[in-house]
Amino acid sequence: MPETGAGKEQPQGAGTLLAVVGASGVGKDSLIAHARRELSGDSSVLFVRRIVTRPALAAAEDHDHLTPDEFASALAAGRFAVHWDAHGLRYGVPISVRDHLAAGGTAVLNGSRAALPAIRSAFEKVVVIHITARPEIIAARLASRGRETETDIARRLRRAAIVPLDSGERIDIDNSDAFEFAAAAFLDAIRRIADPATRA
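and the corresponding C-alpha cells:
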C-alpha cells in the first residue's frame, strides 16, 4: 500500500516533481539515464535515487539498496517522503527531495502508476510523465533481458493494459520507435518544467 511520510507539507511556490511512470519494458530507465547525463551540469534538476530492497543491477535502475529490515528501520525513522510496495519489493523516496523542491528545483522520480495518489499527496506540485510503447515492442524488450518467461511477459502485458492512471497533469511519450525521438521529447519535457519562466 503506497503511503506518504511524515511532514509532507511543502511551501507554496515549491518546485515540481516529475513522476516518470510506465509499464516494465517501455524504457523508463534508459530515458532517465540519458536525461541524467544530458543535464548533469544543471543543478536545478535532481534525479532522485530511490531506495529499494533489491541489490542494484548494472543493466537496470541506479538506486540505493537497503535490506527489508534496514528499510523498515528507515521508514520508522521518517527517512522517506513517500514509499510503496510492488512485486515483492519496497521502494522509498528520500525525505531530502523536499529540500530541493522547496528551493524551487525540479526533481525527476522513477515512479509507479499504483503509487501516484500517494506521490501526489506527498508533494505540492507533481507532473506525471507517462512512457508508453506498443505491446509487441514491450514484449521484445522484456524477452531480450532473459529474466522472465513468456508467461511472465504475458502477465506483465495484461497488467500494463489494466493499471489505471490518475486524472492529474500528465505528459505522454511514446517510446516505440527510435530511442532518440522519445529521448528528445523526454528532455524537452524536463527542460520546459525546469525553466523558471514556464513554472506555474
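(Above: one complete record from the training split.) The first strand starts at residue 3 and ends at 4.
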